[in-house]
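If you are new to this repository, start here. Below is one unmodified record pulled from the training split, so you can see the exact layout before writing a loader.
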Amino acid sequence: MSRTLLAVASAVVALATAAAAAGGARTERVVFFPFRGSLVAPAIHLEKSVRGSCSYGSEFATRWDAWSCTASGGRRYDPCFSGRRTGAGAQLVCMESPWSNATLLELTRPLPQALANVVGDPRVHAPWALTLATGERCALVRRRLGTIGGEPVNYACAGSAVLVGLPARGSPVWTIKRAATIRAKARPAAIRRAWW
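And here is the target side for that same chain:
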């Protein structure tokens, strides 16, 4: 990408950040629930169904109802969200981000409640996914991508952009450092929505 395009992209992000702050906007904080009662929420698009079991609390969504699971064929899913039922035969919804297609996982054995993540408000932990003021969608990375300016790359966005570090929560509009690529300089970007 040319330096001119990078400069233009950086200017657009800076303008979106300034506009969000000036407009009295506030970062929306969303705790994601894929169930409505005991049924999968209508907005969730189920791509497939598998059978499997869960070993411990999710590594990506630090909440009591999020799990790291493995399908009978060996594929790992994380996070998988449980509903009210937790025994064999219960169904969990597995999604990589709030906007991705879902896999429905039917438990072959009960959830290991003793290995669940801590109970409490998940919003005290790092968000699972972020939507920037520009509309970019970014999810917590599943493998280490390196560092920029000494800080870890924690989120990957659609395309090649990455987010560095964790959200700065000191003002109504949260920000995070965004880089156009893993090799680019990171600049502040406004966060429209944070998902847990």
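Two things worth knowing about this chain: The longest strand covers residues 46-57. Residues 1-22 have pLDDT under 50 and may be disordered.
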